Amino acid sequence: MYRIGELALRYQVKTDTLRFYDKHGLLAPSSRTESGYRIYSESDAQRLSFILRAKAIGLSLTEISDLLSIELDRANWACADVKALVDNKLQHLSDKIAELNYFKNALQRLSDTCCGGPESAEHCSILEELQSDSKSIICANQSAKCKQTAL
Length: 151
What we know:
Layout: E1 2-3, H1 4-11, H2 15-23, E2 31-32, E3 38-40, H3 42-56, H4 61-72, H5 79-113, H6 125-131, H7 136-141
Antiparallel strand pairs: 1-3, 2-3
């Protein structure tokens, strides 16, 4: 059995993290002392380990909660349900990476067009492009919807 501070120390998290998980229904203490201290069992510690490993690979608290629900009732779920959750997260991350790559490339193109010299910014190519009516920046991000060439 672990008090909240002991469990937090064992897994190198703050006690506030454990309270947060309790508040959001992810990790409830097995019991409380007469003075109200949270007491965690070895099973609770294993659940915390599950939560922390899932968090370490980028799963949200909602996704972790979904997995914990499946974990508690494995017999009524299919492996395909778990895989679908992971595959959905993987697709979301792939989409986000593509979006971030777009941002990086657009910023790089803007940076490459600018001399970056000490002269006045009156004719700065970056500011001019951002102020223009050109849709090239927007179109580069929505290539399926727009046929204009990016910067």
